[in-house]
Write a structure and sequence with these properties.
This protein has four domains: 165 residues, Bifunctional carbon monoxide dehydrogenase/acetyl-coa synthase(codh/acs), Chain M, domain 3; 107 residues, Ribonuclease HI, Chain A, CATH 3.40.970; 99 residues, Bifunctional carbon monoxide dehydrogenase/acetyl-coa synthase(codh/acs), Chain M, domain 5, CATH 3.40.1470; 51 residues, no CATH class. The strands form six sheets. The chain has a four-stranded mixed sheet with strand order 4-1-7-6. With 467 residues, it is α+β, with helices and mostly antiparallel strands. It contains eleven helices and 20 strands. A hairpin with a 4-residue loop joins strand 14 and strand 15. The longest helix has 20 residues.
């Protein structure tokens, strides 16, 4: 007998990955239009949890109109095998179980949650948080038997959401701080997470002591606890294996894991760089590191930033450049906690390569930015264009300026390349131009190709006429 026969919509894993666009939305809970939103799980004594109780503080779904509402989802669980270290593990499953509900889309995590109820499912009868609560209670207890009792509170009253939002931030910070003293070199295993593969099939998160999950919700300790209590679940152990490159963060074990868990689409991953084989991203990352070629530096933008970044693109556009389980040079989905790591983009120069970030996120993590660099990184108040950024960096003496000078010196001493010889049917290209062994390529007609400030690496280039 199905546990969901009294639910007006279907509940199934087939709805994971569903996208509900704004025209099809009945109501949005949280999301970028509101400041306060959160989801929080706390482990309590058995005596303090009334199993199956569902509480609604503020307007219910049937009382809402089509707009975005402040929202809090507070879950209290109890069980003889439960401890505080499992709170983050259980909390992250909210994302998975909410997406089982037809027409109920959940994205992001913690204080960044965005939930949409479709108009179609609302008209089918999904018109109360009581129904959502029933589904979550049943799923949590059936999927995680160590939960003996569970009660859920939905909060839509703006003042109550704001109060608990501040409390939740303190709890998140306490959890994150637990792992900061542990190094990747101190452990023999990392952990993987496939929770977001319904949205990004070729993404598999690698979680280490010094590299949090992209979503910022799962630490190495959280992942270890999850793998222990649910060995067949979406979070699993990875043998670290041999270290192939300590600077870039390449290990035989992580390569084997990413290859296996992406169906061979991704074969290598470098954990501490935004270039080469950067860590893949889903869509729930807290921020994006993005390359700014005009200054040869990296910018950072977090999900909550409004307006365009210094290169003119908003968070949404930059997020589209790295989401979906792709490896794109210079675009890297990251968590805020990873910015606090000593291995943060270490292969790229770490904080010496960061040139721009929003003031809000800079203020939040400034204690983890080297003191001699923190004031040299521009914010939206210092530079709104690349031209203004360059001036700010030069005036402030950012380390990236020395990098520019070094590259200029290299250019001065580099031998001048011979001009390609162009004839009617071929291009005689000097070996230094292509840095390979092929110096002749076919070309239709007579023409000259001039590439300025370009880097070309190719073993062979063939230009064919298309008839």
């Amino acid at each position: 007998m199905s546990m969901f026969q009294d639910i007006p919509v279907e509940v199934s894993v087939i709805y994971e990955g569903q996208r509900i666009r704004w025209p099809d939305t009945h109501v949005e809970l949280g999301g970028p239009r509101v400041e306060h939103k959160f989801e929080l799980v706390r482990v309590k004594p058995l005596s303090e949890v009334e199993d199956g109780r569902i509480v609604i503080i503020g307007p219910d779904l049937k009382d809402m109109e089509k707009r975005s509402y402040p929202f809090g989802l507070y879950i209290e669980v109890a069980g003889s095998q439960l401890g505080e270290e499992l709170e983050g593990v259980i909390e992250r499953r909210i994302h998975e179980y909410c997406n089982y509900i037809e027409g109920f889309m959940h994205v992001n995590q913690r204080y960044d949650i965005q939930i949409r109820l479709s108009e179609k499912s609302y008209k089918k009868g999904l018109n109360s948080f009581q129904i959502i609560g029933k589904v979550l209670c049943r799923l949590f207890k059936s999927e995680l038997p160590i939960i003996e009792r569970i009660q859920i509170t939905f909060i839509t009253d703006p003042e109550k959401v704001a109060d608990m939002y501040r409390e939740a931030l303190g709890i998140y910070e306490k959890r994150d701080a637990r792992v900061r003293g542990l190094k990747d070199e101190d452990v023999s295993e990392f952990y993987g997470c496939n929770l977001c593969q319904s949205f990004a099939p070729t993404h598999s998160c690698i979680i280490t002591p010094q590299r949090y999950s992209n979503c910022g919700a799962i630490s190495w300790f959280d992942a270890r606890a999850s793998a222990m209590v649910d060995p067949k679940g979406p979070i699993f152990r990875i043998e670290k294996g041999d270290c192939l490159d300590p600077l870039k963060g390449e290990y035989t074990g992580t390569n084997d894991s990413i290859r296996k868990n992406t169906g061979g689409e991704i074969t290598r991953v470098w954990l501490y760089t935004a270039f080469g084989y950067p860590h893949t991203s889903c869509g729930c990352f807290e921020g994006v590191a993005f390359y700014i070629p005009e200054v040869d530096g990296l910018g950072i933008v977090h999900r909550g930033f409004r307006g365009p970044t210094v290169n003119g693109l908003p968070f949404s556009a930059l997020a589209d450049s790295t989401a979906g389980g792709r490896q794109i040079d210079g675009f890297h989905g990251i968590s805020i906690e990873y910015m606090r790591s000593k291995k943060f983009l270490q292969a790229d120069g770490g904080w010496k390569r960061i040139v721009w970030m929003p003031e809000a996120i800079k203020e939040r993590i400034k204690d983890f930015i080297p003191k001699d660099i923190v004031d040299k990184i521009a914010t939206e108040k210092d530079a709104s264009t690349v031209e203004e950024l360059r001036i700010f960096l030069e005036k402030g003496g950012h380390p990236i300026v020395e990098r520019w000078k070094e590259k200029e010196k290299e250019a001065e001493v580099r031998p001048r390349l011979a001009e390609p010889v162009v004839t009617e049917d071929k291009v005689e290209a000097p070996e230094a131009l292509l840095k390979g062994t092929i110096t002749t390529v076919a070309a239709p007609g007579t023409f000259r190709i001039v590439l300025k400030n370009a880097r070309i690496r190719a073993e062979k280039i063939t230009i064919k006429r298309l008839d």
